[in-house]
Amino acid sequence: MLDTELEHLPPELRWREWMGRVEAVIFAASEPVSREVLARVVGKSCNLELVIDDIHAELAGRPYELVSVASGWQHRTKKAFGDIIHDAFGQQGAAGQKNCRSRRRLC
């Protein structure tokens, strides 16, 4: 059984573990991940909104970001890298890449 409370860890390490779990679940998913699913991997006292905020801050300089979509959270490539991805994989190859959409919109 998954230990979600992590009471054996000091608060700072517990928070880092929860952040890692949330990001890993979102990264591994092919579809947006709902708050209900994310709540399964963190403790009852964990504020998911604050975890998401901290993940956003850590991803600030990365080529991808965490975005809120109607049904949950998802990693997406930042718009600035869309043309690069399409050029790297070609128009047909890019269609199969995780989370890529139209060349003119967020990739």
Structure summary:
By secondary structure, the protein is of the alpha+beta class. It has 4 helices and 2 strands.
Structure commentary:
With 107 residues, this protein is an alpha+beta fold. 45% of the residues lie in helices and 11% in strands. Strand 1 and strand 2 (72-77) form a beta hairpin. The N and C termini lie far apart (37 Å).
* Strand content bin: 5-15%
| Count of individual helical segments | 4
The SSE order reads HHHEEH
Strand order of the largest sheet: 1-2
Rg calculated over all Cα atoms: 16 Å
User: What does the largest sheet look like?
Assistant: 2 strands, antiparallel
Percentage of residues assigned to helices = 40-55%
Mass-distribution shape: elongated
